[in-house]
UniProtKB/TrEMBL annotation:
Domain of life of the native organism: Eukaryota
TM region(s), chain numbering: 119-138, 150-170
Keyword Transmembrane helix: yes
Keywords per UniProt: Membrane, Transmembrane, Transmembrane helix
Official protein name in the record: Uncharacterized protein
InterPro entries: DUF1118
Amino acid sequence: MFSREEKRKKREVMMKMMAAAAIPYSPLLLRSMASQKPISFAAKTVTSKKGTTGSKPKPKLLTRVEQLRLLSKAEKAGLLSAAEKSGLSLSAIERLGLLSKAEELGVLSAATNPGTATGLLNISLILLVLGPAFVFLVPEDYPWEIGLQVAVALLSIVGGSAAFAASNLVSTLQKSS
């Protein structure tokens, strides 16, 4: 028949199954095995809840866009017609694969990440300081140096302003109503 060791192992397995199913052990208890889900002991392990206490739930991005009426504001401002005049139509977006690229880069998940607004703000400040610092540090001995100063200053101003606006937008979208 069964040795003592085999009986002990079976009893331990049965006790683990009962403990996992949160049913008190009873030698007279009959359970149907057909309707049970397989018990995963790995799913019953204790996990750390670090970061869950005190952390805010991720904002619902589309809900905030709707609450702030951003689509109607973009429509009233004429952003779509301006983008189309500059050559950025829906077919151009599709042809260039911008939506799949945004998906690959995780743009939407970055918009819900609490650290994104701060990171964009830091980038904008760095860029806005970089332009004047570059103009101050680079000498004006040759015309190409002046051209380089103008180019770097313009890029840093445009990039810093865009990063600042994006930081403000992401921060507004992440605020709870």
